[in-house]
Amino acid sequence: MATTDYDAPRTAAVEEDSLEELQARRAAPRSGAVDVDEAELAEAFELPGAEQLDDELSVTVIPMQADEFRCSRCYLVRHRNQRAVAEIDVCRDCA
């Protein structure tokens, strides 16, 4: 393995193109390739074993009850007997 002197002055690794080369590159005809939208390509792919569901998923949301609290770390709603400390809203799993 070769040693590297990190204190040595660096040399320019990138060579700059001359003005003539840049102008010639600009004047050269561009390819006829068309940019393709990646989202459009992704729609054509189907993952093996994946099911396409056209049904909307609906879940009944129940408001937080008086005997529940929201953990300040994991943000899950827990019953008050899952509280680690009475004064702090942190569940036993996060404590």
Determine the number of helices (DSSP H or I, runs of at least 4 residues).
2
Low-confidence parts = none
Fraction of residues in helix? 10-25%
| Total beta strands | 4
Query: Based on helices, strands and strand pairing, what is the structural class?
Result: alpha+beta
Radius of gyration: 31 Å
**Helix and strand run:** HHEEEE
> How would you characterize the largest beta sheet?
2 strands, antiparallel
Approximate shape: flat
Residue fraction in strands: 5-15%
Cα distance spanning the termini: 48 Å
**Order of strands across the biggest sheet?**
1-2
- The overall pLDDT average reads 80
Could you characterize the architecture of this molecule?
With 95 residues, the chain is an alpha+beta fold. It is built from two helices and four strands. It has a domain at 62-95. It has helices at 19-27, 38-44; strands spanning 68-70, 77-79, 83-85, 88-91. A two-stranded antiparallel ribbon has the order 1-2. This is dUTPase. Pfam families: DUF4193. InterPro entries: DUF4193.
